[in-house]
Design a protein that fits this description.
Family: Belongs to the TRAP transporter small permease family.
Helix content: 55-70%
Number of helices: 7
Pfam families: DctQ
Membrane topology: Multi-pass membrane protein
Strand content: under 5%
Radius of gyration: 25 Å
Structural class: mainly alpha
Order of helices and strands: HHHHHHH
Protein name: TRAP transporter small permease protein
Keywords: Cell inner membrane, Cell membrane, Membrane, Transmembrane, Transmembrane helix, Transport
């Protein structure tokens, strides 16, 4: 049995024509939601702030103190608003091992209970963040003297988006008859 590879000689013109045959596909931006774009904008503000911090510290040898604070608060916004994207896409950590061994009816019931617990958790988190804003929302940031309430409103928005997306996912799961916990292969393309 021979393991010698056979290569066909092709010309430069043949290679060039292979690129002509392919029609470039446009980017599909329809899969992204408002929270994705908002998290992206906040991320780039954070990235520019970190770059400015680096530039002023190592190139100008005189760093701006406010850039670190802005980057920190932007990171908070990216985390909480980006978490809404993870809820929408069902990308948070979950353990589905138990669902592999449960019959359909108990698995469906448990999945619905988990959906309700998630909705209740995010609803309660909204209440807690709102109370927190009422207590310390008027405090000033250390270097730029804006109210810290702006940061906590981003956290509140993140929890509100997670709450809304949790309701949306629960309704979709109930209509579909299964969730990602019950049939993960239906969501990642591995189910035949």
């Amino acid at each position: 049995m021979s393991t010698v590879e056979v290569h066909k000689q092709i010309t430069a013109d043949e290679i060039a024509h292979t690129f002509e045959d392919e029609v470039p596909k446009g980017a599909d931006l329809g899969q992204y939601a408002a929270e994705d774009w908002l998290a992206l904008v906040i991320f780039w503000i954070m990235a520019l702030s970190v770059f400015l911090q680096f530039f002023t510290r190592y190139v100008l040898n005189d760093s701006y103190a406010w850039t670190e604070e802005i980057a920190t608060y932007c990171l908070i916004g990216v985390v909480f608003i980006g978490s809404a994207m993870c809820v929408r896409l069902s990308r948070h950590i979950q353990v589905d091992l138990l669902f592999r061994y449960l019959p359909h009816l108990p698995a469906r019931a448990l999945s619905s209970v988990i959906d309700l617990i998630r909705i209740a958790f995010f609803g309660y988190a909204i209440k807690l963040v709102w109370q927190f804003i009422q207590i310390i929302g008027d405090e000033r940031m250390t270097t730029i003297k804006f109210q810290k309430g702006f940061v906590y409103y981003a956290v509140l928005l993140g929890f509100a988006l997670m709450f809304a997306r949790s309701i949306q996912i629960a309704v979709e799961n109930w209509r579909r008859g299964y969730s990602i916990l019950e049939r993960p292969g239906a969501f990642d393309g591995t189910e035949g």
